[in-house]
Amino acid sequence: MIEFRQALELLGSEAARAVAMRGFQVEPTPLDEALGRVLAEPLMARLDMPSFDNSAVDGYALSATDRCEFQVVRQVAAGSDSGDPLRPGQAARVFTGAPIPPGTAAVAMQEDVVVSGDQIEVQAAMRPGANIRRRGEEFAAGRELLPAGTIVSPSTLSLLASQGVQSVACRSLPRVTVVVTGSELVAPGDDLAEGQIYESNGVGLQAACKALGLNVQTHLVEDRLEATQHLLARLLDEHEVVITSGGVSVGDHDLVRPACLALGMREVFWRVNVKPGKPVFFAERDGRFVLGLPGNPVSALVTFCLFARPLLLALAGAEAPMATLRACLTRPLRKKPGRHEFVRGILAGGLATPTEGQGSHMAGGLAAANCLIHFPAEDCELAAGEEVEVSLLRWGLV
Ligand code: AMP
Ligand code: MG
Fold first, then answer.
1. At CA 67, angle to CA 62 and CA 72, rounded to 5?
2. Residues near ligand 1 with C-beta < 6 Å?
3. Given Cys at both, which of 131, 307, 368, 369 links 107, Cβ 3.0 to 4.6 Å?
């Protein structure tokens, strides 16, 4: 059994080794398909930004700041030419984003100007350069705007488009699949016989992968060694990661680990000192992985967040550490010391409230939660009002 931190370090180092071994394919991706993908190259500015001097407001471009009265000689809208330089005493009507005429000393907001015919009187003191967005004031062409490894968000897309980019080089995604194990499992829609239950991890794990931009299929296998071994062998031929649920504990019918060992996989770790999720299992062969998550529905999804998500993101070449913050606990919590617990909770306005139903078989408590409250291994009591560490349960990437 290893500690949570050690498990994360092992996931990270194994993923780094696999990535170093096979590198990434680079896939040119149109912007409208790039949300959530990972930049294969740093994003370099192609254009100065802004790319010309322009007005920050609707108002008047003034030829000087040391006088109040001007003659308005032309109008410049966004998208049009700024025209000839302003001469002394002249002003131009300008709108937000319009290029300002050469010779503009400042732009007066229209709220500060009294107009009569083609004459204006500026009623505010003007600072030289006021309300002018200068060419290159944000960044100059050639500057690195974002490093390789950035996850493309809506704001990344907008930045790319503002540079005239239509398609962006993205890293290839790892091929991932899901296996749910258990002879008691029946697909929703079928009738249940005595002792059977509906299979519910497959759809959750598949959706958790989908939220990371990975399209995965789910396979169901009974608790039989040969069948499990055969399925895993076949899937490892075509995928970098097989995520399994169930069958990783110490029971006679827990066959994921024996099947992996029979396939010659190397056990990286088995059992982590966390709750929920203690039986989690991780094995490697030729840079490909089986990550065995426990079968209890809450454990399966919580361990997906804790272990599968960082593994998959590392294999996708993305930097995305779990977001943690501090919050005030609203109710006391107790446990035996020794194991790091992740308490399902609701975070709102800086307050963290544990949800009802903390059993690892109680899916309702997870479904209602938006965060995991950290209950450190060494502690046995957290008081109401105490400050705790909280990780947001974010399924998506952006
Ligand atoms: P296991 O880890 O295989 O011992 O499973 C632990 C518990 O989770 C058992 O009560 C299983 O019936 C249940 N379980 C395992 N897999 C699933 C699944 N895919 N959907 C719903 N419950 C499951
Ligand atoms: Mg089972």
1. 40
2. 180, 182, 184-185, 197, 199-202, 245-247, 249, 251, 294-297
3. 131
